[in-house]
Automatic annotation (TrEMBL):
Organism from which the protein derives: Paxillus rubicundulus Ve08.2h10
Entry EC no(s): 4.2.1.17
Protein's name according to its UniProt entry: Probable enoyl-CoA hydratase, mitochondrial
GO BP annotation list: fatty acid beta-oxidation
Protein family according to the UniProt entry: Belongs to the enoyl-CoA hydratase/isomerase family.
Length: 258
């Protein structure tokens, strides 16, 4: 393919990554995953960027793993070239918040990619699902683990065992997505929220994201302990001093991200 599989642009302190394989409904292939990861890592290292938006197009956020590419794989092939696992492992290591702006289909690996994001905004026409069972496989990039955490066991089983899809209204009602909008507003509103997040102290934002994510890894006692340590360490930041001073002086804080 001559076209880049992703497009990137910046608006203020926000990096925007658009999946760009429209003819394949943005199906995830090895090249796209490589380019997506490179872009995420580059934004994560860029101190001008405070948050990232990942989106697709109006027809599809992403219709899943590339079925044509996956068809060639046997067990050893799947084991050795599990780039969706690489994506999953790498996204977990990104410090900056990632907002998924979802219009159209988010199926299979596409739904899993969406669930790797920290906040999901969806258009009213968005459709979520884990249809792998219809292909003779199961979700392989977090679907069985993240969907249950997002929407609970009964709904997750209902979707994964039948392959049925969920429209955005149900996705919002069940907690999979944070907010829904008219389709043409989804990306704009995601960028606005990303800009809001990017306007705060970068180290504090990273601490908040890390603490929330640990809630899914640790029991309550250890999670509360982890939160306390990060909370206490925020008192060592210049931005903490500035935030409290600014409040008491009734002015806007000027973050130095230190
Ligand atoms: C490769 C795909 C694709 C996919 C669609 N296309 N999804 N190519 N991988 N996942 C291609 C089609 O082959 C077609 O190409 C073009 O995109 C347009 O799709 P259509 O089917 O013609 O569009 P439409 O009729 O509107 O139907 C849309 C759709 C359907 C309902 C989303 O495309 C669909 O069911 N796609 C598969 C969804 C799916 O099963 N995803 C899970 C994949 S498995 P041509 O060349 O014909 O124009 C997975 C495993 C994850 O994700 C586990 C990770 C380890």
């Amino acid at each position: 393919e001559l076209e880049p599989t992703i497009l990137t642009r910046e608006e203020g302190n926000v990096g925007i990554i658009t999946l760009n394989r429209p003819k394949a409904l943005n199906a995830l292939n090895a090249i796209l995953i490589d380019e997506l990861l490179a872009a995420l890592r580059s934004y994560d290292r860029n101190s001008d960027i405070g948050a990232v938006v990942v989106t697709g197009n109006n027809k599809a956020f992403c219709a899943g793993a590339d079925i044509k590419e996956q068809r060639e794989l046997d067990f050893v092939g799947a084991y050795n070239t599990d780039y969706l696992k690489d994506l999953n492992d790498a996204i977990v290591a990104i410090h900056k918040p990632i907002i998924g702006a979802i219009n159209g289909y988010a199926l299979g690996g596409g739904c899993e990619l969406a669930m790797m994001c920290d906040i999901l905004y969806a258009g009213r026409g968005a459709v979520f699902g884990q249809p792998e069972i219809k292909l003779g496989t199961i979700p392989g990039a977090g679907g069985t683990q993240r969907l249950i955490r997002a929407i609970g066991k009964s709904k997750a089983m209902d979707m994964i065992l039948t392959g049925r899809t969920m429209k955005s209204a149900e996705a919002e009602a069940s907690g999979l997505v944070a907010k829904i909008f008219d389709d043409e507003e989804t990306v704009t509103r995601a960028i606005e929220t990303a800009q809001k997040i990017a306007s705060f102290s970068a180290p504090v934002v990273a601490m908040a994201k890390e603490a929330v994510n640990e809630a899914e890894e640790l029991g309550l006692k250890n999670g509360l302990h982890f939160e306390s340590r990060l909370y206490h360490s925020s008192f060592g930041l210049a931005d903490h001093v500035e935030g409290f001073e600014a409040f008491l002086q009734k002015r806007e804080p000027r973050w130095t991200h230190k």
